[in-house]
């Protein structure tokens, strides 16, 4: 509140110190003021404030009367209790003082009573301990029943400690002490058994392997490979929790097996409490191998049960997919076993790091675990891969499978007959010395751990007791190689940090290189030998069922199909065993080289007619580079090999262009085969139609075989599509050298197939020359008798062509058949027209006979080609010109133009003059001169 002098006083409602200051200020103001009036004013002001405060206080009391009453009553009660408590405390103090005086007087008696109380208390404690010790067996059984091993261990350890300590003198507990000591000594075996059960039998709920049965385990491998796991972000092995220093506790209200990791920690902690950690580690190490064998036996039983067949029947079937299923189950369980061993070792290291145990004590590690796992798998593989039997047969692979130049023809060559061995007169196998020696050798082998085929190891593991899921065979490796390699890579990754090496990888490598490749080579050798060695073995064709299965319409050689089947098997092996793709490809190339040589040898045997390697005319021409290049350049040949993306019909020429090209071919044939000196010998043509069928079968087979080889070669090399994207191949990468060798062999087979087709094309034409030259040179066309039948050689040609048509139509595709017989009419017409120069003379009967020859051939060729051969009509018209006078012929040429060539007209005129010898000799020269002038004039007019 502000005064007249402008001073500000604290409010009367302030708290204690402010109120005191305010009163002192008022007193000081009243005492120091000299003016009475001022004091009166100050007094009046204070009185006014007092009245206001009193009024305000009265109002507050009135408003809070009830609260004020309660506070006052409470204060009175508290004050009363305080006074009463002071009196009681004073009384207690007096009583304590009196007690102290009394106790001081009876100190000796109190000491005696205290000692007696301590003695009684000790006796009661001992009696309680005895009662607790008596309950230990029951509690121990309950803990073991509920698998609370840590509580059980603590209980038995403490009980034995008490019996050997404070209660050692209690004779009544002697039997109980013996019992508990025995159970303590046996408890670590229970703990080791529990650890083994957790490792090998119990599987965490979140890590249970899926054993879904499937029949789609094909060569592509329906299994979780290592690469797929890496791509999907999955770990190869379950993660082991890092080591922590937390105290291991056991909850009696829960099932300890619900958490396997914690349960293992409890078991190890129990061993630590028992001071049996080294014994426990040794017990776990000893049980690794038998327990893994038991897993194999259980997995085998499960596969047999899932197959819905009896074990004996399943073991006799060659179904490696069941072995693959067994291995996938075993691999998954072995991964979990390794994971559990990691957890056990982590806990063993934890108790060792506590400093209680000596760090250098003997303990197993993960190297031992992986070593046992590999050993069990190796023994399992030895049994299913039939290593012992196949090794005993000594079928070894060649030493240089990886060299493309490996020659396997030695396996297909004829073997020298073995000299008969002389029978032994005496044998000492059953003598005492021999029997004792053999027994010693067998015993030595039984203890030789380095023996690759030691059967005693199987007996030690108990693997002979598990049920077989398929028949043992070396070829079982094809179904399991990829998942086996993935598992081996997992093992190598797991033991990489331990500087360990995979013994399983060494076994698989030795098996494949030393046994499997040799077995494959031996099987391929026997199969191809059976198909290629023997009389006429390369002439046999497959049956119709095999044709339908292969999707071909014409017969194929059995040898080609068998070789292709073996190559297909090797191609599948390249996919099944990608690591050895180069070896299998080199084996394929060597097989192809040998079969190529065999085919060339058989081809030479069919086209060779003399011991001096003299060949048929058609074979020599088909091999000639110039003639072969010319024939391959003709449209009729190019139609057979249309380019990629080009229609066959686009390669066709017009009829006039085709006639021109055919005339070139015919001229080449006539210039080489039609000469006045000699005729074609019979031994230089193929007279047996069945041999033509064989050559046609060779062509079809080799062309089909070449197509399959080409597809295989394209699959081996990475190709790019039209967008430039690399296409993935189903085959693994192979060496460039082997791929080049394969492409070269493919071209060799293609060339031989084309040579066979060219030979057939030429052989039919050589037959026409052979018979038609005899028609002109050996027959009489100037006889007086009207011979109505065609020439005998014409009939032979028709018969020959019909026989070839029958065999080739069955062996060749329609387009190939058309290529061989197309253009024969033009060829026959050209041959007969060119043969006019070899006729000494001819009369009307001879002209009629020649026309009958042409008509007979035309009918036969029409039946073969199913089209009218118009070129033979022109040849008949050519011979019918001999009916006319030569001057009339020249006049017709001058008026209508030349229908034939100058040479053909000259030969016609010359034959006419030879047939009419009574005319003027100079007349021939005049007519030839007039013919030349007419032809030249006609050519100039056309120009």
From TrEMBL:
PANTHER family: EXOCYST COMPLEX COMPONENT 4
Exocyst complex component Sec8 N-terminal domain span: 51-142
Function per UniProt: Component of the exocyst complex involved in the docking of exocytic vesicles with fusion sites on the plasma membrane.
Keyword Transport: yes
Pfam entry (one): Sec8_C
Domain Exocyst complex component Sec8 middle helical bundle: 255-484
Sequence ranges of Polar residues compositional bias: 395-412
Family matches, as InterPro entries: Sec8/EXOC4 (IPR039682), Sec8_exocyst_N (IPR007191), Sec8_M (IPR048630)
Similarity remark: Belongs to the SEC8 family.
Sequence segments annotated as region (Disordered): 210-231, 395-419
GO biological process: chemical synaptic transmission; Golgi to plasma membrane transport; protein targeting to membrane; protein transport; vesicle docking involved in exocytosis; vesicle tethering involved in exocytosis
Gene Ontology CC terms: exocyst; growth cone membrane; synapse
Protein's name in the database: Exocyst complex component Sec8
Keyword entries, A-Z: Exocytosis, Protein transport, Transport
Record has Kinase as a keyword: no
Organism (species): Mizuhopecten yessoensis (Japanese scallop)
